[in-house]
Amino acid sequence: SLQYPPRLNCVAALLDAAVAAGGGERIAIYADGVRWTYAQLQRKVDQVAHVLRADMGLVPGNRVLLRGANNPLMAACVLAVLKAGCVAVPTMPLLRARELAAIIGKAEVNAVLCAAALRGEIDALDAAPATLWFNDAGADALEARMARHTAPFEAVDTAADDVCLISFTSGTTGVPKGTMHFHRDVLAICDCFPRSTLESQADDVFIGTPPLAFTFGLGGLLLFPLRVGAATVLLEKLTPESLLAAIAQYRASVCFTAPTFYRQMTPLASRFDLSSLRKTVSAGEALPLATRDGWQAATGLAMIDGIGATELLHIFISAAGEQIRRGATGKPIPGYQACILDRDGKPVGPGVIGRLAVKGPTGCRYLADPRQKDYVLDGWNLTGDAYEMDADGYFFYRSRTDDMIISAGYNIAGPEVEDALLRHPAVAECGVIGVADEERGQVVEAHVVLKDGFHADAALAAQLQEFVKRQIAPYKYPRSIKFQAALPRTETGKLQRFKLRTE
Ligand code: 3UK
What we know:
alpha/beta, Rossmann fold, GMP Synthetase, Chain A, domain 3, nine-stranded mixed beta sheet, 16 helices, 25 strands, binds 5'-O-[(S)-[(2-aminobenzoyl)oxy](hydroxy)phosphoryl]adenosine, AMP-bd_C, AMP-binding_CS, AMP-binding protein
């Protein structure tokens, strides 16, 4: 099990310890035209921490809202907030002033560090907390203030169970929930999935798309590499093509992104030298088998699927290598337990679909939210996912609990129909939902984006319906097919099914 000392500052453990152990000259961060060693990153972090304390007057426990794309200074800012004993409140770059105001109120934010490129939405706030801009050449910007601080900054002596991070869920179903995480949680996620499943090492180079403001990216592209003395590549505005090019350029070995991105990279993969890639991780939403198979055929790599959640900070069920079972997300990673519950909260046996519940070193704490009692039962997190377990303890994703389609008495999981559709050569993307129907309660409706060169017409719709019927139980076929130019997705790569329902 994971044991951490009662006094623990996670940045001292991740960064200062690496430098003290002689790792100061190793590369910590690559970015466009930039390369920071561990010692350089430590120096930047210390400078920002001094600014927080001396210039902004912050004290341990204060909450600092962070806004920025993935770049080295954004990473230094996050680490500096934690090192100074403050609490980081990262926010997704695309959030608007109204959403930011809700987070600032809810998290009782004391100060803001915001990339200059994102200043519009902070300026639009009625009342913004004290703010410093970064990625900015101005005389009053963070960088100018950092330059005045040259002394090392000693990590604040926090308790292992002091809160260091408040991360907000995306809130597709209501007001976003703030999830709270401790210094020890930061180390715990580094000592679970990366050890058991990635087997990450000091010579790894991490790369990928999730924003540092999303715990998927914060862990995968910053905390995990630091924990083992590895390097990370932080790039903004990645496209499938530019990510492939960057993997080749930086000789990246571990890649994190969402299923859609892998789907889009697959047909382009053969044009790039991907020989450095060792592990490719898919998370954020269900990985269709068609996507896994396509990626493996194009690259020779067995995709690592992993389910994570903001509530639990990072991935808690996954599998790699020999452990991969077709169609399954995997097994709880060592340190975590998972089970399937029925509607009354009783565990169900193998082969029965129910609500996924997870328990482990992280999770279970919402920031002052009455929904705590709905999502946390007896120390178990209910993730909102419908899952099924097999006799060997593998966990199979079916759908979000609220998205299960019930048609003429049958339960139909949209992702299964999506996987069937994605195997058709004409289908680039698809989203399957249930729409109200007088006779059947709900009927299955597919929203389909075609690949270039295919024509949306009734003949193709009929062909897709027949194609689905040949692969899965015919009652699951989409009775309605709507062709779309694109599907609505969140900044984190998740299909917004609720938007399809109102289209
Ligand atoms: C869904 C998946 C099937 C699932 C996240 C990795 O996605 C992350 O966190 P969020 O809070 O969303 C959590 C929900 O997303 N999901 C995520 N991964 C998978 N569904 N298969 C998967 N592999 O509904 C879950 O409840 O945005 C992912 C690491 C950190 C994260 N925060």
